[in-house]
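Chapter summary example.
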Amino acid sequence: MHFGWSDDEQAYRREVQAFLAEALPDDWEALSAGGPGSDAQADFSRGFCGRLAERGWLTQSWPAEYGGADAPPWRHAILGEEMWGNGEPRGPQYMNVNWIGPAIMKHGSDAQKALHLPLISRGDVLWCQGFSEPEAGSDLAALRTAAHLDGDEYVVDGSKVWTSYANHARFCFLLVRTDPESSRHKGISVLLCPMDLPGIEVREIPSVVGERYFHEVFFDGVRVPASCRLGPEGEGWSVVSYALQFERVGAARYHRAALILDDLAECARERGLLAEPRVQEKLGEARTLCEAARVLTYRVIDQRAHGSPPTADSNVARLAGTTAEQAVADLALEIFGEESLEYGSYADTRFRWAMTAGVAVGATEVQLNLVARNLLELPRE
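The structure predicted for these 381 residues follows.
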């Protein structure tokens, strides 16, 4: 079978590229260096996503009834590649489109859809996800943040950690345990929690990744309307599982890694390193990993295009993308040597961003466990 982009798809990619060349400021590289969580990039994303929405691109793959254009998943994939290849100017809003919106479409009430989906499709709202906890990081099913129903409100107590974008978010996709007698995957619920409610405190966690990237979020007797619960009480695990199938291939990291690899090959040439066998080997390995991640991601997109249910292929694609980005970052350190030790340098920035790839949306070790269990069907010890 021969795979290739159609003439219309290639024309669309060129149109997106032309738009980005016009829309991104001259200092965009410096502006985006702080990452999607920085104050500057979060502010920029609001106007930028509004412009995408005006063109009908932001949520084009959504159903028309929810503000989309019923476009095939491939057009959304093209947009994602060009966005990530240019430092993700959508900022935190990329995840709104990729998985928060689809989760609300599938599990939300009519009122929830009416409130949240227009805000997302207009590029007019920032979200964060309240998943990890101090004693339940990668082991999400061990979460302890509790919510008990008091009249028509849930009273939430607990904390979340490593929460990206919490400082700018208007809403939090919050996981809580609504059954105190439950354990593991049972008794978990999802709340679409407004972040301006009394009792919520956000504290930044200093990190090497970038400013405003990680936060702790504390909930002290926060009263969240029961109407904010997404899906049935106690069945939040199925809601999250559905959402994360979208998120695991929502960031086109392989595309950005491939572009960086091209830059590194030129840097190696300029430094007289391109003829060294070790550098050639690492360049070849990184290129192979980038292309493998691309093909595996396309497999998942093709499944969606055909209406197939989610499979463990999304976990495989996620692992491939993480591995590719790490390989490119390691090569950057090799080429730049001691220059990489300077904070904010080209290689340092690549390495710090690759660090997040193995943690976000489920750590690499978690993905490996899911592949072993759901794809390879290996027995548990």
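To summarize the output: The first helix runs from residue 7 to 23.
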